[in-house]
Amino acid sequence: MILYCCLTSAINGLASLILALVVYLRRSRNDSTALFGWFAISVALWSFFYLFWQLAPGPREAELAGRLLTASAILIPVAYFHFVLRLLGSPRVLELRIGYALAVVFAGLSFSPLLVAGVAPKGGFPHWPVPGPIYPLYLLFFFYFVIATALMLVRGMGRAEGLERNQLRLVLLGTSIGFFGGSTNYFLWYNIPIPPIGNGLVAVYVWAVGYAIIRFRLMEVNLLAARWAAYAGLIALLSLTTPVIVAAIGLLPIAGVYEMNLVPVFF
Fold first, then answer.
1. Are strands 125-131 and 116-122 parallel, antiparallel or unpaired?
2. Sequence-ordered list of residues with C-beta below 8 angstroms from that of 149, at least 6 positions apart, any chain
3. Which end of the chain lies in a sparser environment, N or C, as judged by fewer CB atoms within 10 Å?
4. What is the tens place of the pLDDT at every residue in 150-207?
5. What are the pLDDT digits (tens) for 31-85?
6. Are 185 and 199 in contact (CB under 8 A)?
7. pLDDT value at 224 more than 50
8. Which of 21, 23, 46 is CA-nearest to residue 183?
């Protein structure tokens, strides 16, 4: 499972970073395009800190990485909420401002025992984060914006027709799959014996919106540039798979994470 988390976090981060770079290099005047890039960067940050956490050689490094990935995760639902607001042309300015203000507060508290109390062995992982006393408030914040965004997309689909409805349906499907997969990371925080089996689905919702850009021209991104990004991303993912496996196998035993037995790593 540790090797699986290393691979999926690397893929999630790379997929998000490629799409974010394409969006920003395009320099589109479309607000929703730029906001999608901001959202993709927040996912990339969380994914790379997740990878560093899995490869941490000791509890001190793992705790720091855990705090950083928690701070990054706090930005994801608000950034996606912001993107969908612009995509649908919905105001809700006050709600958005409150969301960003709370995100900044929670991100700062990630570096205190109030949100992340430390790390401990859980579910076969040597350094899983331990929730602080206000962690339930963070979960409430996180899932509020996830659900609010999904409801906006559902209402938008009800008003849309034809191609636009297909666009929103794809975004909603990808969002549901991705957030469901990422949410499987929360069970072990409270010692619920469910591993983060859905971590590999996080890239799905980023690439679902990316496909909507390519297939439906959802935002003002050049079709050729978007296709180049998709092909480059696929090639990069395939070429990096073998080196990442080798690196994970080489580094994790040094950290004392698992023995050289690949069968229990995945189960």
1. antiparallel
2. 77, 80, 81, 84, 175
3. C
4. 999 999 988 888 777 877 887 788 778 888 888 899 999 999 999 888 887 776 666 6
5. 666 787 888 888 889 999 999 999 999 999 999 999 999 999 999 999 989 988 9
6. yes
7. no
8. 46
Q: Which tokens belong to 55?
A: 């490869």
